[in-house]
Amino acid sequence: MSSIVKPSARIPKTTPISVDYEISNNVLGLGINGKVVECFSKKTKEKYALKVLHDCVKARREVDLHWRASGCIHIVNIIDVYENTYSNKKCLLVVMECMEGGELFQRIQDKPDGAFTEREAARVMHEICIAVKFLHDTHIAHRDLKPENLLYSLSGPLGILKLTDFGFAKNTFNNATLQTPCYTPYYVAPEVLGPDRYDKSCDIWSLGVIMYILLCGFPPFYSNTGMPISPGMKKRIRTGQYNYPDPEWQNVSQDAKDLISGMLNIDADKRLTIDEVIKNNWIAQYTAVPQTPLHTHKMLKEGEEIWPEVQEEMTRSLASMRVDYDQVHIKALENSNNPLLNKRRKKISVTEN
Predict the structure, then answer these.
(1) Which residues are in the Protein kinase domain (predicted)?
(2) Per the annotation, does 298 bind a ligand?
């Protein structure tokens, strides 16, 4: 039995946030449940990120779970939380450390040509696994692991990779199962697509997808129709239909492929646990992984001008979801192309049913 005891809930401050912080109009990003803007401590002048949430049950859950997870070095730390009222609406104002080093993919894209290696991918995965193990040991399922939620604290070699955005996170105390179909299409586990209950192993599937992308620059499952998720894409996810095409995978180690296969097991009961993943030699002994140059940088660099469009498409996909406390519906979007994947689509013909 786990020795972890559920911590008592922290209490937000009720004093006006303006007493302690100056709030900028500079928008740093958009989370699932609210926007993130720049703010500065009036006392220290240090810069922070401020997430603005409409106060509701779901927002309270997000803040509580993120607060509980803030003790991990690879999870974005919450500094302060305020409960304030604006225009007669209650809001939760979450002050977090400001992640100035950018997103994981952007960091890889900015590296010199050929500089991203399999060993570096293993190190990145090791850092992400530390965050996921902390969450799972604390009985939290993140449910939205993806590169856009992995940010560096600083630019340069001293930056630390950290996980953020707990908008889909859920408590899993007492082996509680989950049913809400929360997901971002590329990274969704097969059991999340169906009506049945699932558990925190959905995070391991997402980890497998992230590792796959890190090693080649494109996802294992994607839609050929321009929709965020199509019937054919769902079918391939549910049946685990993906491959390791050359030349991108030609020189990647078999150990890496075997680990991905263990994480992308369509049977959640047979899928690797986070403890099994983090103890895998490819992760645990990442400094011994071959320094094989990867195609990841090249694939992302080829899509340098259109990558923002791909991110915008994913943002539109998320915006099309009606997020309730109990369920999420995906509305149909007009057809659009994902230019980043056109190269792969020309090589791989997959039947859409």
Answers:
(1) 22-283
(2) no
